[in-house]
Amino acid sequence: MLKEILVSAALAIGQTPSVIDGDTIKLAGVSIRLTYYDSPELFSSKCPKEHALALQARRELQALLTLAEAGSLKMSYKLVPCATSNWGRLCAEATIDGKPLAAHMIALKFATPYTCQPGSCPKKVDWCRPAAQLSRAASVVR
Known about the structure:
Blueprint: H1 2-12, E1 18-21, E2 24-27, E3 30-34, E4 36-38, H2 48-69, E5 75-80, E6 90-96, E7 99-100, H3 101-107, E8 112-114, H4 131-141
């Protein structure tokens, strides 16, 4: 409950989150998993391709936060219950000008759809596979 209070207070005063990777931000010292999409792993990449995609995803999310801080767009976060333990992170739905951040990241191919149910999450995409196989895997996850 303390984490939720800290994050809610930080959001209320307009604090800008920092970017950890393509689907995780930190606000008021609290890590927050952004929901409905999964980006390549930055800190546990399985191949150079995944690492490069993870860097691109992080740069995109950072660029969006920079634009939001400058007032060029509006990013909003709504804390939601996590379907799984999430390694102590909170979960949040994020939007850009009222549209889902997940859709933006997926459209740029920096993420795949990823929706967990209470107690379980779908298998993550293998970002090291060829691009055509990634497209088919992403459509299966939807």
